[in-house]
Amino acid sequence: MAELLAHMGASITLLARNEDSLRQAVASLPASAGQTHDYIVADFADASVVATQVQAYLEVHPAGFDILINNTGGPAAGPILAASAEAFRAAFEQHVVCNQVLVQAVVPAMQARKYGRIINIISTSVKQPLPNLGVSNTIRAAVANWAKTLANEVAALGITVNNVLPGATVTQRHTSLIHQRATQTGQALEAVEHNLLQLIPVHRFGQPEEIAAAVAFLASPTASYITGINIPVDGGRTGNL
């Protein structure tokens, strides 16, 4: 997403907990005249730290942001009956509370310009809960409802809020889930992948660039009349409208 938006002319500020990884990612982004890329270090396990770091950044860069993309790693897999109360609290902090903190930080500048795009990367589980992702199914649905409520509140300010719902996409999390399922079932990795592909009408896994393309569209002025919706990018896997 950062690479595509940078190619389109956006200045990117990345936010994550590992400064070395952030530094490398920023250095890899394309930049033309007038573009500057930067990063903020904060761990989403503590929303108060996120708020402090972002506010400190905005004091130095008061122009703020036109686009906010919330994309937090998913909770660990597992059945909901086995999930601890702490697992729910931690996921809620990382996804819902941190999203709220970031929105409160960036919306004033968006409102002043009468232009803003807030895009949340969630999961198709908000439409159809996925097996063995109990905590994730619960918290992702909370983010979707938070986003819909927010979309209605800020629509008249020129700010849109939308959710992109990736299906099975080739990422580190996708790979780890396949390995976990193989371990739990005793199946070979190839068999697990084959079974998953049978659930996807296009019979392949998605690529990160395909998620990025949906985000780039929603972030553009072209999408100004689209707000408060969930867009699955899943090869047709989700079994409902």
Could you give a quick summary of the protein structure above?
The protein has 241 residues and is an alpha/beta fold. Helix content is 48%, strand content 12%.
Can you offer a commentary on this structure?
A 4-stranded parallel sheet has the order 3-4-5-6, sandwiched between helices. The protein is globular and about 55 Å long. The protein is built from 8 helices and 6 strands. It starts with a helix and ends in an 8-residue tail after the last strand. Strand 3, helix 4 and strand 4 form a beta-alpha-beta unit. The chain is of the alpha/beta class. It has one domain: NAD(P)-binding Rossmann-like Domain (Rossmann fold), CATH 3.40.50. Helix 3 runs parallel beside helix 4, helix 4 packs parallel to helix 5 and helix 6 crosses helix 7.
* CATH topology title: Rossmann fold
The end-to-end span amounts to: 25 Å
CATH homologous superfamily designation? NAD(P)-binding Rossmann-like Domain
CATH architecture: 3-Layer(aba) Sandwich
CATH class value:
Alpha Beta
Radius of gyration: 18 Å
| Proportion of residues in β-strands | 5-15%
**How many DSSP-defined strands?**
6
Structural class: alpha/beta
Question: How can the largest sheet be summarized?
Answer: 4 strands, parallel
Described by the principal axes of the CA atoms, the overall outline is: globular
Helix content: 40-55%
Mean pLDDT: 96
Low-confidence stretches: none
Count up the helices.
8
